[in-house]
Every structure is written in structure tokens, then in C-alpha cells.
Amino acid sequence: MTIGSGVGVLDKAAAILNALENGPTSLSQLVELTDISRPTVHRIAQSLVHHGLVGRDMHGRFELGNRLVELASAAGEDRLVSAAGPILIKLRDLTGESTQIFRKQGDFRVCIASAERPIGLRDTIPVGTQLSMKAGSAAQVLLAWEDNERMVEGLHHARFTPTILAGVRRRGWAQSLGEREPGVASVSAPVRGQSGRVIAALSLSGPIERLTRQPGKIHHEAVTSAAHELSELLRVQNDHA
What we know:
Layout: H1 8-19, H2 27-34, H3 38-50, E1 54-56, E2 62-64, H4 66-75, H5 79-95, E3 98-105, E4 108-115, E5 130-132, H6 137-144, H7 148-155, H8 162-171, E6 174-177, E7 184-192, E8 198-207, H9 208-211, H10 215-240
Antiparallel strand pairs: 1-2, 3-4, 3-8, 4-5, 6-7, 7-8
Helix pairs in contact: 1-3, 5-10, 6-8
């Protein structure tokens, strides 16, 4: 449990920003996630909107604002990106396949770091690429631990099912075969932030002919180990920040 700073309104504002970490959130969801009264949540969230720290999506839900992106850029390198680099390279060299980190951004998942297989047939996903949240093992991971309302919304028109997501939560990893692109297979595992919430998906991808039709059987241990290592590294960095 996070210890309060003693400045109540700032603690409440921080709780609201933390609750928005995984994407657009309704007022009712904010009340549930923060355990703050509805009028207070609404008043503070609206104040954060005024300052650009929180925004509203096309459905009126609250989401992290553009000002946070500007502040993060001013602060320097994204910790997740900088921490992920060596781990992605190590996983690529261990498996011989391309590796990536995806973060949910609105209705898409965005590749924020990658280490590509240097030669031969490979799955190339440049940093900054926006991909659908409706297909692929990374999308499964980013959706599997969402609350019920977001999960139901995310499953609409998705290539995967509630049963598949239940399996992802049970195993702790996801796999896909040609969901995002014909002939491409992938394996993904969750990267967790300080609070334990899933903040990103670490993925390995390549051609089905090399990964086979059971890519998880071959690579899930390496992928989940890398994701756990990254989660722990972020936790340690946060503790020393």
C-alpha cells in the first residue's frame, strides 16, 4: 500500500493518475479504483484536465494528458525504454528471434523498444509502430488483466476470445499464430509496474515456420523470465529514484 505524503489533495491526485495508467477510465471506475468519493474524484480530475495532466477521450472517459508526455520528455529517457534495451537484446540473442516492448496507448498498442534479428527471415516492427489491440499475443497480454468493463469492450471484434484471455491469466503468457499478420507467430508476457499492474507487454515474434504452431511451448520460459527481469529492474529503479 502506498503511504500518503500528508498532503491529502496531492495524494488523491496521484491516486487518480495511477488509476489512469492502463488507459481511458470512466468516473465510476475511478471511484472504484481510488476509493475516493465521486464528487471529490470528479473535482480533482477536472482540475487535472484544466492543467493538461489528464484528458478526455471521445467517449468522455478520463485518460492521461499530453502534458505528462511533455514532462516525461523533459525529464529525460523513458525508464521503461532504457531498462528494456539490454533485456530485449539478451532475449533476441538467446532465441534468435526479434523482440519488442508494447505499451497500450488509447485504442492501439505502440512498439516503444525493439531488438531485431540481424539476418534472415524476421518480423520487423519499427519503434513507434501502432498496432491493433484486437490481435496478437501482446494485445492479449495488455487486455487480459484489465477490469471487466474494459475487457468486454476490448474483446469486441477481437481475434481472440474470453477463454483465450483466461488462459493467458492462468499461464502468465500469451501466444498467437497469424492473428496480426499471416505467417507470423509471437509469444508475450506482462511487464508490471511498481503497483503490480501490467504496464507493457514484452514480446518475441517471427515466422511460424521457425517458431512452429506452438511458439509458447518453445519460448514461454525465456519470454516470461525476461518480462520478470524487466519488472524487477523497474521496481528497483523506482525504489532508488
